[in-house]
Design brief:
Elements: E1 7-12, H1 20-23, H2 26-33, E2 37-42, E3 56-57, E4 67-68, H3 70-82, E5 87-97, H4 100-107, E6 111-115, H5 124-130, E7 133-136, H6 146-157, E8 190-191, E9 201-202, H7 212-230, H8 232-236, H9 242-257
Parallel strand pairs: 1-2, 1-6, 5-6, 5-7
Antiparallel strand pairs: 3-4, 8-9
Helix pairs in contact: 3-5, 4-6, 7-9
This protein binds ligand 4HQ.
Amino acid sequence: MGSGLVIRFHAVTLFPEMFAAVTHSGISGRALEAGLWSLGLWNPRDFTSDRYRTVDDRPYGGGPGMVMLAGPLDRALDAVKEAGGGKVIYLSPQGRKLDHAKVMELAGREATTLLCGRYEGVDERLIRRRVDEELSLGDYVLSGGELAAMAVIDAVVRQIPGALGGEQSAVEESFVQGLLDCPQYTRPEVWPEGEGEKVPAHVPGVLMSGHHENIRRWRLKQALGRTWLRRPDLLAARKLNDDEQSLLEEFQRECKENGT
Ligand code: 4HQ
């Protein structure tokens, strides 16, 4: 049976064993077992020919650290291309920041190659010749591109139909609606329990009411309110319908009334 959406990822990395984090655990691990995606791992060290299997060298012009050699990466990328690797993405702070729109774009591609740099990065000539796009996880420095590549894989794989189990749905999640998530609660209904000095907190009553329409509106109001408080940039980028506008105004009024 043709199952439709299968995404093939390839990672070029000096640390292929790190990718066990996405292949062996959680939603991505289960989706891999279900055949919803695949991962090819390519170590540039296997594309060297000197006796030390050298993959890096000192930067021209001096300075600290090492730079990844173009040659082994070029040959590794030739092999990935032969295997149908798709566009090559280099993970680096110089790239455009990853967001939900880019995740959805990648989820629509059959194959993507993730080039993971270590040390001070990759020889610029390799980037110019072989890289299609640069993506950043955010404005901070990681020790290598692997964690960023795994974040890409995790975020994309959960968008593949069937990757999220049960009634979970990727379309209901935060950012899809352009809003932050609402607060979540589980048992016990009052917590902490039986610790005399601590003031116990209750689960909001509406969530215990079983009134599904009221619950839906409360959750939407909380999502709007938290987005307004914590990520006004997201709210500015999103149109609100009349219903959402009045729920947000209710939230803002309540903020003023109780001084929070
Ligand atoms: N690095 N988003 C430097 C990152 C990074 C990021 C990966 C460190 C590339 C050479 N990658 N190496 N931020 O900090 O993706």
